[in-house]
Amino acid sequence: MNKTVEDLAARWLTRERADLTHIEDKVLQSALDRRPISRDRNESFAETLSFGDRLADNVARLGGSWAFIIAFVAFLVVWAVTNVWLLTADPFDPYPFIFLNLLLSMIAALQAPIIMMSQNRQSERDRQAAAHDYAVNLKAEIEIMALHEKLDEMRHREIVAMHGRIEAIAASVARIEDRLAPSGQSPI
After folding, report:
1. Domain span holding position 53
2. pLDDT at position 100, please?
């Protein structure tokens, strides 16, 4: 079996080592070293998150939940009922609810970029996961090709050994025929 990344690249990927991507080079090296390449991407990604990243993810998770939507609708209903019917004499935010609109605008202005930060991070996580999946799949393909080569070699050695045995049997049969022929018996 070949023992260098250059040999494996030429044999299995039909490329020079210089033309390999970083991931392909890493996969071929792991195949030579007989070490696994897969790992838990969730743990390694979670370790790189800062406090702000985790906070943004939690805000996005909360803002995109049914619990938040239901609670927010309930808050809006309470706000409207309180200002229209309960505080009819002196409401703190009369009917067009200008103060409520201001609060909603400020919440949206803060929440939108936080959610976008979380989505960008999720996109990066997905890209990293796709690259990792590619590496694992490539390693699996390389290992399967290596197994095929080993099986083909074993089959070839087996066929060569069988040919040798067949030739030995044919030689034994020929000797037996030669011994039987002088005594007046016909060959088989």
Report:
1. 36-180
2. 93
The torsion of the CA quartet 110, 116, 118, 119, rounded to 10 degrees, works out to 160
Number of domains in the chain: 1
Predicted confidence at residue 112, as pLDDT, reads 92
In a domain, 142, yes or no: yes
Confirm if 63 and 131 have CB atoms less than 8 A apart: no
Q: Does some domain include residue 43?
A: yes
Q: Is residue 146 part of a domain?
A: yes
* Chain-centre distance for alpha carbon 95: 54
Residue 104 makes CB contacts below 8 A (sequence gap 6+) with none
14: three-class secondary structure by DSSP:
coil
3-state secondary structure 129-182: HHHHHHHHHHHHHHHHHHHHHHHHHHHHHHHHHHHHHHHHHHHHHHHHHHHHCC
Q: Give the model's pLDDT for residue 42.
A: 75
The dihedral sign for the CA sequence 146, 147, 149, 150: positive
- Reduce the DSSP state of residue 69 to 3 states and report it: helix
Asked whether residue 4 is assigned to any structural domain, the reply reads no
